Amino acid sequence: MVDMFLFGVFPYMALVLAIGVGIYRYGFDRYSWSSQSSQFLESKALFWGSIPWHYTILLILLAHLLAFLFPASWGALLGAPARLIFLEISGIALGLTTLIALAILIFRRIGNDRISAVTSKVDWLLFASLLLQVATGVYIAISLRWGGAWYVHTVSPWLWSLVKLNPQIGYLTSLPGIVQLHAVNAFFLVAIFPFSRLVHVVSVPLSYLGRPYQVVIWYRQRRSS
Amino acid sequence: MDIRAQVSSVFHLDKCIGCHTCSIACKNLWTDRRGNEYMWWNNVETKPGTGYPTQWEDQDKYQGGWERVGSQLRLKQGGKAGTLGKIFHNPNLPTIDDYYEPFTYKYEDLTNAPAGKDQPTARPVSMISGKPMKIEAGPNWDDDLSGSNIYAANDPGVIQLSEEEQQQLFAIEKMVMFHLPRICNHCMNAACVASCPSGAIYKRGEDGIVLINQDKCRGWRMCVSACPYKKTYYGWSSGKSEKCILCYPRQEAGEAPGCFHSCVGRIRYLGVLLYDADKIEETAMKADGELPAAQREMILDPFDPQVIAEARQSGLADQVIEAAQNSPVYKFVKEWGIALPLHPEFRTLPMLFYVPPLLPVLSVENNGTQKISDDFFTSLEQARLPLMYLAGLFAGGNQDEIKAVYRRLIAVRMQRRAESVGDLSEEELRTARELAGLDNEALDAIYRMTSLTRIKERIVIPPMLREQAIEAGMDPEEYKQGMGFGSRKAPKRRW
Asked: In the list A65, B27, B47, B257, which could disulfide-bond B247, CB 3.0-4.6 Å?
């Protein structure tokens, strides 16, 4: 029963929250739609935390996403031992870097009075959740070998069953508890996305590359006559 | 031609007494909020000095403004891809310590302290963390401290002077200073606009005021580092960047901006300039010393029938063209040629111009004294600021620009002296006029505009024609992408 809720119902609740509250916040309080940078108050530690954190977490998320979207190709990619070992090692290295970077970011917020002053309760909740997520991820990568391979036969079908609105929780219940925790916490992060600074992940300003440097806006029709 | 109108300003530095009334007016109007305490959209610096934030003019340190790369104009902090590449951490961003940590005092300790042997004191506390702090800097911390080895000696403009010029600046009886009030320049080629990844910063087409759409700003902070004048500020509590809005809500109601209205020395002039927007990039590509002249070239004569016809074609209302004809800024910048842009070499084409302070100016060039006018109490020989220092501030290092302005200002003074005291020969006056390239009528007009005019002549606000705005029939936030801020909701985070 609990398993059904955690693996079959909670993911949907998280997604509904993320989309529903996300749209509400974007529509009615767009002013707050950002990650509220604290670099202005502390820059040095942020450099060592933020840059490795963002690049490594993006690569790790990309790997999770690719293995979910294209399990067959991903499985074929890991077919050769050399490629499997390379991916396993680079995954662990990236995970460890992420963990260290996150630790830097957390200590930066604890140890600096100025940064503490601009850190909200939701920020702490987010940090706790992220720390749990990264720590369990690294633990799984080290203790449960060849995650790149077993992911495509367990987690990927589970996620696809969620997409098809026919949750097959059996894929997860047979996995070790630590993996289950990792999976549920992932959806917890999805759930708190619209309430937290995480909203900035959907505001990547790529359109900047295509626009002209100068922006001029007229408040009247320009050539009315 | 693509003719646009711009509300522009002139600050007359000879008249600035450094009283900071402008700063206080601005502070009370716009930045008296948590996270904005450190912001001074209007500030008054003592020059030579390091300024606010410290050494803001040093672009090797802050990487603000534009640079020429081959035949291209590029943001100094990097092109578009380079800017996006710094999104996780902006290495050029100043931190609060480059400005100062805002503080208050625990005043309640004065009355709540128990009886004791010692006087109770009000300890300073940080306005960020609320904890006790040691105050090491504050607003105008170096006010009037020019000539000091901490401030004046570290002025980026002083550092580039010759050894001899520097020594003269610090000689005990020759020490010198003047005040430099600064607001956003509402540039034609604004670096803040160009650097904003979200596209939240924009220039208003009708009046050229540069604003940050607070709902679109995602707090990437690229504008703070890109603006070479450091006139966009990051609100650390709201997570938004904010800047001078040239009091557009006041202007739309026909009132002068707060800092202009409150100016005790009446140093501030405001009016419309017409310019050709097609020439922006070409002008910004000119060599450093040619920039002031090239920028003047862009500014069009509002009395020229051809310009008027083109302006109408470009959609400018007749009232705006009329306001441009009455603009004191046009007179200062174009007709009389006595106002120059601040640091034109940053290539943002700033639209705030300064009449450089006439005295004390030291006429030293190439380590030798140079005679510019005949001996007189306002002559450059008796003045004390190196021309090179002023040229570095207002002319991209071009001393000829500064000299031209000073010849005109000196001619005005000589003419007034002749009129009121009568101890100057017609010969001397004629020489001064010829050097200045201005006739008696123009000299009179400069004197009048500098000393006698009332607010309606000094500050000529064009009709903003809000009644014609599209938003009258549409959702203003939908069309205009939001106002400056706070128009419908308080600028406060609720999430």
From this structure: B257
* Per-residue pLDDT, B414: 86
Both tokens of B271, joined, read 């009016």
Residues of the domain holding A171: 2-210
* DSSP string computed for B416-463: HHHHHT--S-HHHHHHHHHHHT--HHHHHHHHHHHHT--HHHHB-PPP
Question: Does residue B243 register a pLDDT over 80?
Answer: yes
Domain membership of residue A222 (yes or no) is no
Q: Mean of the pLDDT values across residues A111-139? A: 96
At a CB cut-off of 8 Å and minimum separation 6, what does B57 contact?
B51, B155, B156, B157, B228, B343
Q: Where are the alpha helices (DSSP H) in B20-176?
A: 21-30, 59-62, 80-85, 96-99, 108-112, 156-159, 163-170
pTM of the model: 0.91
Over the stretch B92-139, which tens digit does the pLDDT of each residue have? Answer: 999 999 999 999 999 998 999 899 998 899 999 999 999 999 999 998
- What number is the ipTM of this complex? 0.91
Q: Is the dihedral of CA A205, A210, A216, A222 positive or negative?
A: negative
Query: In a 3-state reduction of DSSP, which class is residue A63?
Result: helix
Residue of B nearest to A224 (CA): B315
Burial (CB count <10 Å: 0-12, 13-18, 19+), residue B266: middle
Partner-chain residue, chosen from A40, A41, A222, that has the shortest CB–CB distance to B315: A222
User: Which range, A41-45, A75-79, B115-119, has the best average confidence (pLDDT)?
Assistant: A41-45
Q: Does B193 touch chain A (CB under 8 A)?
A: yes
Q: Under an 8 A CB cutoff, do A116 and B202 touch?
A: no
Residue type, B117: K
Q: Is any Cβ of chain A less than 8 angstroms from the Cβ of B86?
A: no
Domain count, chain A: 1
Mean pLDDT score across all residues of chain A = 93
Per-domain residue ranges of chain B = 280-458
pLDDT at A224: 43
| Averaged pLDDT for residues A29-52 | 95
Taking the C-alpha atoms of residue B211 and residue B199, their distance in angstroms, rounded to an integer, is 11
Q: Distance (Å, rounded) from C-alpha B181 to C-alpha B54? A: 15
Examine residue A104 and state whether it is found in any structural domain, yes or no: yes
Query: Is residue B485 very low, low, confident or very high in pLDDT (cuts 50, 70, 90)?
Result: very low
Specify if A215 maps to a domain. Answer: no
The token pair at B178 is 């003047």
What contacts B128, CB < 8 A, 6 or more positions away?
A41, A113, A114, A117, A118, B96, B101, B102, B236
A222 and chain B: CB distance < 8 Å anywhere?
yes
A218 in a structural domain:
no
Bridge-based pairing of strands B268-276 and B299-300 is: antiparallel
CB atoms within 10 A of CB B223: 28
Q: What is the mean pLDDT of residues B421-438?
A: 88
Structure tokens of B466? 């809000």
Cβ distance A218 to B206 less than 8 Å, yes or no, reads yes
First CA to last CA across chain B, in angstroms?
47
Burial of B418 from C-beta contacts in 10 A (0-12 / 13-18 / 19+):
middle
The CATH number given to B280-458 is 3.30.70
- CA B400-B405-B410 angle, to 5 degrees, is 120
Q: What is the pLDDT of residues B155-211, one digit of tens each?
A: 999 888 888 888 878 877 677 889 999 999 999 999 999 999 999 999 999 899 999
